[in-house]
Amino acid sequence: MVSDRFQVRGRFGSGAYASATIVVAAMVLGMLAPRDISGSQLLALFLRWLPSLMRGFAVNVAVSIGALALGTLIGLLVGALALQRSGVARIARLWIQAFRNAPWLVLIFFTTYVFPFEFTIAGHVVPFPDWLKVIAALALPASANIAEVFRGAVQSIPSTQWDAAGSLAMSRGQILVLIVLPQCARRMLPPWMNVYAIITMGTALSSLVGIHDVLDTAQIASTTVAHSSFTVLMYMSALALFFAYCYPVTLATRAIERRFHAGRVNMARKIKSISPSETSEKGAYRS
What we know:
Helix content: over 70%
Shape: flat
Structural class: mainly alpha
CATH topology: MetI-like fold
Order of helices and strands: HHHHEEHHHHHH
Number of strands: 2
CATH class: Mainly Alpha
Radius of gyration: 25 Å
Oligomer: single chain
Strand order of the largest sheet: 1-2
C-alpha cells in the first residue's frame, strides 16, 4: 500500500514540479519585464497574435514528424547494416558516430545552402523548399540515434533465441524478421519517443533559415508591436507550447518503460516460482 502511494507520487510529482517551474519562471520574467503597456492591451494583443503563434507551432510539429519518419527509415537501414559482419558495417558505424556528434545548426545550414533550391527532372522544374531541407537536416541525427537504438535492441535479444531458431533451419534474415524484430519493436518504443521529443525541440532552429515557425512568428509579433512586455509574453508562450507538446511525450515514454519493466519482473517471478521439484516431476511424468 505504501509502495503504491510512492508510485503515484512519482508519476504525478515530476509533472507538478515541472509545471510549477514553468509558472514560477513566467512570473519572475513577468516581474522583471518593463511595464510599457497596460494589462488589458497586452491581453488583447496576445489574443490577436495567438492564432498565428499556433499556426507557426503547427509547422514545427509537421517538420518534426517528417524528420522522424525519414530518420526512422534511414536509421533502421543503417542499424541493420551495422549488425552485418562485413565492411559495410564500418560505414554504418561511421554514419552513426558522425551524425550523433554533429551540431544540428551546422547540419541545417549545410542542407539549406548546399542543396539546390530546385531540380530539373525531365524538363520539369521541381522546387526544393527550405522546410524540406530542414527535415533532411534533422533526419540525419535522428537516423543516427535510431540506428543506435535499433542496434542495441537487437543485441539485447538473448543469443539462445538465434541458436534455437537456427536449429529450425531458419535463415538469419528470417530470424531477424519473424523473431527478433517483433521483440525489438517493444524495446525500441520508449527511446524512439525520446528521440521524437528531442527532434521536436530541435525544430526551433529552423527559424534561422527562414522557416515561418513559432519562433519566427514570435519575432515578427514582437517587432510589430514593439513592446518589451509583449516580447517576453510571446517567447514565454512559445516555450509553453513546446513544453505542453513534448512533456506528455516524456510522460508516455516513462509509462511505457514502467509497463515493460513490470512485465519483465512478473515474468521473472513466474519463472522463479516454479520449484525444481515440480520441474523434475513434470519431466518424470513425460518420460
